[in-house]
Design goal:
The chain is mainly alpha-helical. It is built from three helices and two strands. The longest helix has 21 residues. The mean pLDDT is about 85. Keywords: Membrane, Transmembrane, Transmembrane helix.
Length: about 110
């Protein structure tokens, strides 16, 4: 017969291993999170046409170039599809024509 006041001998080492394992995983995650990120300025396998992506000045220059091209396109006339009569207009002129068209139908 067992005595209810008598403690059973349950091994404590699995609990200790689990606690130490969780703590070790936490330390590994923290070490990985604190690892400094190296910039891509040292990349060697980047093609010549993509080198502008590696520096801040290169990216700013490319953005300025793209915005200039978009602004020039937004302020110019051009044919999009001449056979179907689709044209590109400056935005201000397109607004004027659209408003005139709306007012003419009222």
């Amino acid at each position: 017969m067992s005595n209810p006041s008598q403690k059973t001998d349950s091994p404590i080492w699995p609990l200790a291993v689990a606690i130490i394992g969780v703590f070790a995983i936490f330390l590994v995650i923290m070490a990985l999170a604190r690892t400094p990120v190296t910039p891509l300025t040292q990349a060697t396998n980047v093609p010549e046409s993509e080198q502008w992506k590696l520096t801040e000045d290169g990216r700013k220059g490319r953005l300025k170039e793209l915005r200039g091209a978009a602004d020039a396109k937004a302020d110019s006339y051009a044919w999009i599809n001449q056979e179907e009569g689709v044209v590109q207009l400056p935005v201000d002129r397109a607004i004027e024509l659209t408003l005139a068209d709306i007012n003419a139908t009222r």
